[in-house]
Amino acid sequence: MNTDPRNSARIEQNPLDEIATTAYGLGIVFGIALALLPRLSSSSITIYIMALSGFHFLEYWSTARYNSSKVNKDSFLLYNGHTYILAHLSALVEYFIEFYFFRSYKISNSFRLIQYFGFFLLLVGQIFRTTAMVTAGKSFSHIIETSHNPQHTLVTNGIYSISRHPSYTGFFWWAIGSQLFLLNPLCFFGFLYLLWTFFSQRIRYEESLLISFFKADYLNYKAKTSTLIPFIK
Ligand SMILES: C[S@@+](CC[C@H](N)C(=O)[O-])C[C@H]1O[C@@H](n2cnc3c(N)ncnc32)[C@H](O)[C@@H]1O
């Protein structure tokens, strides 16, 4: 058993009432969406809500399980900035407006292939995201580390040998896939633009720090591993 206090979750950063309420709330949202699944003429919105609720639960769970010293009430990543909340609200608004005015397009069989592809991206995105958090373990942090701490080692194995930034790649394709799945053309392009801009800047900044921490080791890793986000080398 690991008794090193540096690896333990800090109780003052994890108010148990808040953690329990948040997890319960996410479970209720998931459960309501699941119960509505067979009752609606289009199931994509309920599956999207289940995927969103599952995503936020897994963010806390994988941090708590594999990176416990860094877990805190914000690890659910529910308050991920105004743009993030606005993006999901826009997706819901677009979906419902189009469902109201162009119902036949939203439930048409002609677009099934796009939806299947979107669902596939959503699923693969979630697998990349969670696997990255599990693989990186203590080297992972929701906030970019600006100084090198001794527990932070360079991770290049497992999913990090497939993509240099698997958690970002996963999040990128998850979000793009969700808009294909919802058949939301406006949010599809909006998400694509916002996410690409966000991740290209974040990766540039994160890598400048990683190079200062790991020097040639990171440069070698970078030279042989792609990001799997289009046009981000
Ligand atoms: C939110 S995590 C994202 C990790 C990675 N960019 C990804 O997408 O899987 C950010 C932290 O991970 C660290 N990090 C990124 N790539 C890493 C790697 N290959 N090995 C160790 N730490 C890494 C960064 O220093 C930063 O503090």
From TrEMBL:
Pfam families: ICMT. Belongs to the class VI-like SAM-binding methyltransferase superfamily. Isoprenylcysteine carboxyl methyltransferase family. It comes from Ascoidea rubescens DSM 1968. This is Protein-S-isoprenylcysteine O-methyltransferase. Its EC number is 2.1.1.100. It is a multi-pass membrane protein. The keyword Transmembrane applies. Its main location: endoplasmic reticulum. It catalyses: [protein]-C-terminal S-[(2E,6E)-farnesyl]-L-cysteine + S-adenosyl-L-methionine = [protein]-C-terminal S-[(2E,6E)-farnesyl]-L-cysteine methyl ester + S-adenosyl-L-homocysteine. Keywords: Endoplasmic reticulum, Membrane, Methyltransferase, S-adenosyl-L-methionine, Transferase, Transmembrane, Transmembrane helix. One of its GO terms (biological process) is methylation. GO terms for molecular function: protein C-terminal S-isoprenylcysteine carboxyl O-methyltransferase activity. The chain crosses the membrane at residues 20-38, 45-63, 83-101, 113-132, 171-196. Coiled coil: none annotated. GO terms for cellular component: endoplasmic reticulum membrane; nuclear inner membrane. It is found in: Endoplasmic reticulum membrane; Membrane. It comes from the Eukaryota.
